[in-house]
């Protein structure tokens, strides 16, 4: 049997399961606790944060752990919009973003934000020209997923960083 539904539930690699098993048996403290078990968990969490940051070529203080994608989407979308509202209330996303992004954008619209939804082509890809045209002086957030979780389209996300 070939399993094609890896959108949200991919089987973990054996080495990941082995690592999880070892860690869950030896480092089970609350990383926010002050006792030795908590300190051990905190140190492992920070080590993991640094490794992930190194892989992504970012600073460790830019890595946050959440309970899942929906929480992360809500947190970053609403948090960024509210934090940057003094600079503008225009937000941009795509017509094919995750529902958590769309729901956050719709909630922000009720708070007076203006949201532009970029159209996509037959393959689910945005046009960089459409994105450039949508950006305004009051744009404070552009949310474009790197790879679509439903159809696998890879967006040209490196290009927007250049303008």
From TrEMBL:
Q: Pfam families, from UniProt?
A: Aminotran_5
Give the protein's cofactors.
pyridoxal 5'-phosphate
Recorded GO molecular functions are: catalytic activity
Q: Which SUPFAM superfamilies match?
A: PLP-dependent transferases (SSF53383)
**Aminotransferase class V domain: which residues?**
2-159
Name it. Answer: Cysteine desulfurase
Query: What broad taxonomic lineage does this protein's source fall under?
Result: Bacteria, Bacillati, Bacillota, Bacilli, Lactobacillales
């Amino acid at each position: 049997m070939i399993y094609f539904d890896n959108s949200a539930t991919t089987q973990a690699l054996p080495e990941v399961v082995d690592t999880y098993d070892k860690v869950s048996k030896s480092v089970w403290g609350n990383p926010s606790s002050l006792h030795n078990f908590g300190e051990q968990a905190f140190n492992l969490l920070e080590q993991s944060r640094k490794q992930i940051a190194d892989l992504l070529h970012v600073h460790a203080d830019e890595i946050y752990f959440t309970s899942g994608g929906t929480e992360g989407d809500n947190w970053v979308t609403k948090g960024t919009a509210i934090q940057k509202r003094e600079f503008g209330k225009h937000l941009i996303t795509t017509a094919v973003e995750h529902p958590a992004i769309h729901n956050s954008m719709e909630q922000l619209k009720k708070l007076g934000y203006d949201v532009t939804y970029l159209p996509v082509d037959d393959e689910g890809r945005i046009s960089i020209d459409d994105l450039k045209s949508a950006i305004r002086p009051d744009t404070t957030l552009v949310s474009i997923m790197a790879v679509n979780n439903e159809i696998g389209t890879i967006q040209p996300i490196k290009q927007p960083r250049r303008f």
